[in-house]
């Protein structure tokens, strides 16, 4: 599949690995792909993010991703659903961090020891990359660009899509900015 990735899409994947290593995570996840997309310049994906006003709100996106990671990767919608059942996620996080330190639920703690192997891709990152392929195929495009990764991030339920939507970046808005005529989401 990677032979179909453009240079920009490959740079996003490489950047995601670097973000993963930077926080000491053992596997690359969808959030790392989003952070790597935010690092890009002069690509179709970065054009869409800039046009939608996300480039100047990078810090806000990063904070939202960090907060979700602190909640053990739960989206705000999932935390709200648990709250409806009487489960206060923030209280649980607070108690765990009190006993085990800040970030104990994030899975990104740096005190785990040295990791010498390649970073594997977690289920979320794999699903985003597979979905980017489906989106490119549905659009009858031969190569997968970073814009397809962005579209996949907005189309797949989870923290990255929620954070992007909270910042006004949805599948529909990205499609509109890219001027692709609004093809349906690839499933």
From TrEMBL:
Cross-referenced Gene3D superfamilies, in alphabetical order?
Clp, N-terminal domain
PROSITE patterns for the chain: CLP_R
UniProt cross-references to InterPro entries, sorted A to Z: Clp_N_dom_sf, Clp_R_N
Cite the Clp R domain residue spans from the record: 2-187
Keyword Cell membrane found: no
For this entry, the protein name equals Peptidase
Ordered alphabetically, the record's keywords are: Repeat
């Amino acid at each position: 599949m990677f032979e179909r990735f453009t240079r920009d899409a490959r740079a996003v994947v490489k950047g995601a690995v670097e973000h993963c290593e930077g926080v000491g995570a053992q596997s690359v996840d969808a959030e790392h792909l989003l952070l790597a997309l935010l690092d890009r310049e002069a690509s179709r994906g970065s054009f869409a993010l800039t046009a939608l006003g996300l480039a100047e709100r990078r810090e806000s996106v990063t904070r939202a991703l960090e907060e979700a990671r602190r909640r053990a990767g739960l989206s705000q919608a999932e935390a709200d659903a648990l709250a409806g059942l009487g489960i206060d996620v923030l209280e649980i996080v607070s108690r765990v961090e009190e006993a085990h330190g800040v970030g104990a639920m994030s899975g990104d703690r740096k005190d785990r020891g040295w990791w010498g192997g390649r970073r594997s891709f977690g289920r979320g990152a794999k699903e985003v990359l597979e979905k980017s392929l489906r989106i490119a195929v549905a659009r009858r495009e031969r190569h997968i660009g970073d814009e397809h990764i962005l579209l996949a991030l907005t189309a797949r339920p989870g923290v990255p899509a929620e954070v992007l939507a909270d910042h006004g970046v949805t599948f529909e808005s990205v499609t509109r900015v890219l001027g692709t005529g609004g093809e349906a989401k690839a499933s």
